[in-house]
Structures are given as structure tokens and as C-alpha cells.
């Protein structure tokens, strides 16, 4: 009787394991197919400097600027229009040559900043989640630093390939990333790649995830100095007050609450 119960238990565990693995690969395949379909609709430009430009932007709306400044006309790149028709939460597209990173970037506006941790572009439950921007960042009136988060998936999906940048030789072969917001195209040159963590209130350390919109040159340069000091190698790239940055962040399992971070600066369209 005992043996039969044990066999039944192991059988059920085996079924559960196979079911989980099956669901994992189903989610992965669905994500790959969905992203491929989205990419074909947007005609996403995955080129590095010197490649073909994206389509000309078309004006669609306007916003009142702060103070007494004149009204600011906003433009949405025409390539993004079909995706905005499907989901208004898309704010851009991120591509890194030589990786699986070629995804839409989302930003929740419904008050749930973590919504896209486990939801895809179609707002379906998905353990891969989506790449998503910190809700304190802005692409309309751009903040100094745009922070994008993504899961470190073992399959390489989302930011699973980001830690390739732990290798200096890999960085030298892939020094640029491409992030086009829905309003403008952008090529970004990598400035630093470093390991960090999410700190408690009592911990002392550079909180890269709070470095978003420094008020002045002193604060900006202090943040850049911290990131350069933490970098696993010297990229030879620096930033000055007035530059715009992008920060890519994913989980890192070298320490508790670890993160791996890649920072780049905007160098052109």
C-alpha cells in the first residue's frame, strides 16, 4: 500500500514537472511569435549607425509646455501607429545587435507600475513579462535618464542576453544599442556595465534606479562618476551635463537582490 502511494506521488510530481516545462516552452514560443509579428508590423529598424532611417514622423497631437513656453507639437513615428492602435502603453522599441533583445518597451499608465512584469504586449499573463520603463521616466518631455527593466530569462528572452556585457570583448563587438521611442529614433553608445543591487533604506550605496532626472550638473556628474566607477571595464565613453542616458536593468544572481545594469548615452538618431 505504501509503495503504491509513493508511486502515485512520484507520478503526480512527474506530471506536474512535465506540465510546468511544457507551459514554460509554450509561453516562450508564444512570446517569440508575438514579437516577430509585432516587429514585422512596425518594420523595426534594428540597424546600427549608418543604417537605413525609420519612416518619417507624422504629427498627431500636442501638449502645453511648462510656464510661458509655446505649445509643443508632438510627433509619433508612423511605424508605431499600428502598435499604438493595439496598445496605448507602448512607448518605444529596444534592439541590441547580436542578442535576442528586439522588443517593444511598455510603460503602465494605470497606476500599477509592475503590471508588465508578468504581462505581454497583448496584456495576457506571461511569465516572460515585457520590457518596461520606470513610470517616473518620461519620453514626451524626456527625463535625463530612461530606465528600462526586463526579466533575466534563462532562455535568453527579454534581458536574458544582457549579461553578455559582463565581457569586455563582447562590449567591444557590440558598443551600441538602439532605442526608438514612439516620438524619436535614437542610437546609444554604451558608457558602463556593472553589477549592483536593490538597497534597503539603511544600506549605503549608489541607487542607480533613482538616478532619473538630476536637478543640476553637479548631481548629474556625480551619478555618471558612480556608474563609471562601478563599471566592470573602462569603455572610454563619458557623459557631460546635457547628455541623455538610458539604463537597462535586469536581475543578477551573484548576490541577494542583485542587478546587472548597462548604461548608454544618446549619440544620434
The name CATH uses for the topology is Sortase, Chain: A
Into which percentage range does the β-strand content fall? 15-25%
Characterize the main sheet. 8 strands, mixed, barrel
Low-pLDDT residue spans: 16-28, 44-65
Radius of gyration: 21 Å
**In what order do the strands lie side by side in the largest sheet?**
3-4-5-6-9-10-8-7
What is the CATH class name? Mainly Beta
Beginning-to-end CA distance, first to last residue: 71 Å
Summarize the structure.
The chain is built from 4 helices and 10 strands, in the order H-E-E-H-E-E-E-E-H-E-E-H-E-E.
Q: What does this protein look like?
A:
By secondary structure, the chain is an alpha+beta fold. The chain has one domain (10-47, 82-268): Sortase, Chain: A (Beta Barrel), CATH 2.40.260. The protein contains four helices and ten strands; from the N terminus they run αββαββββαββαββ. It has an eight-stranded mixed beta barrel. A hairpin with a 6-residue loop joins β3 and β4. The termini are far apart. The relative contact order is 0.13.
Give the SSE map.
Layout (H helix, E strand, L loop, with lengths): L1 H41 L14 E7 L8 E6 L3 H6 L3 E6 L6 E5 L24 E3 L11 E5 L18 H6 L2 E6 L5 E11 L19 H14 L14 E7 L6 E11 L1
Parallel strand pairs: 4-5, 6-9
Antiparallel strand pairs: 1-2, 3-4, 3-7, 5-6, 7-8, 8-10, 9-10
Task: Throw out a few tags for this protein.
269 residues; alpha+beta; Sortase, Chain: A; eight-stranded mixed barrel; two-stranded antiparallel sheet; 4 helices; globular
Amino acid at each position: 500500500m505504501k509503495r503504491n502511494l509513493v508511486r502515485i506521488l512520484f507520478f503526480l510530481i512527474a506530471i506536474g514537472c512535465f506540465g510546468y516545462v511544457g507551459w514554460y516552452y509554450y509561453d516562450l514560443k508564444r512570446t517569440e511569435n508575438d514579437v516577430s509579428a509585432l516587429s514585422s508590423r512596425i518594420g523595426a529598424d534594428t540597424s546600427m549607425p549608418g543604417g537605413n532611417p525609420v519612416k518619417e514622423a507624422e504629427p498627431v497631437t500636442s501638449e502645453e509646455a511648462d510656464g510661458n513656453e509655446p505649445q509643443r507639437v508632438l510627433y509619433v513615428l508612423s511605424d508605431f501607429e499600428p502598435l499604438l492602435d493595439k496598445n496605448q502603453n507602448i512607448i518605444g522599441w529596444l534592439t541590441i545587435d547580436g542578442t535576442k533583445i528586439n522588443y517593444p518597451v511598455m510603460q503602465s499608465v494605470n497606476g500599477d507600475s509592475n503590471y508588465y512584469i508578468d504581462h505581454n504586449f497583448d496584456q495576457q499573463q506571461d511569465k516572460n513579462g515585457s520590457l518596461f520603463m520606470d513610470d517616473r521616466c518620461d519620453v514626451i518631455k524626456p527625463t535625463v535618464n530612461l530606465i528600462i527593466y526586463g526579466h533575466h530569462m534563462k532562455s535568453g528572452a527579454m534581458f536574458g542576453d544582457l549579461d553578455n556585457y559582463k565581457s569586455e570583448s563582447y562590449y567591444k563587438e557590440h558598443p551600441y544599442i538602439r532605442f526608438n521611442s514612439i516620438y524619436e529614433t535614437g542610437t546609444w553608445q554604451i558608457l558602463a556595465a556593472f553589477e549592483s543591487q536593490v538597497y534597503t533604506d539603511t544600506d549605503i550605496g549608489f541607487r542607480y534606479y533613482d538616478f532619473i532626472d538630476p536637478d543640476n550638473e553637479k548631481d548629474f556628474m556625480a551619478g555618471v562618476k558612480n556608474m563609471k566607477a562601478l563599471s566592470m571595464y573602462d569603455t572610454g565613453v563619458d557623459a557631460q551635463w546635457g547628455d541623455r542616458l538610458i539604463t537597462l536593468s535586469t536581475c543578477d544572481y551573484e548576490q541577494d537582490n542583485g542587478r546587472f545594469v548597462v548604461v548608454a548615452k544618446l549619440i544620434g538618431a
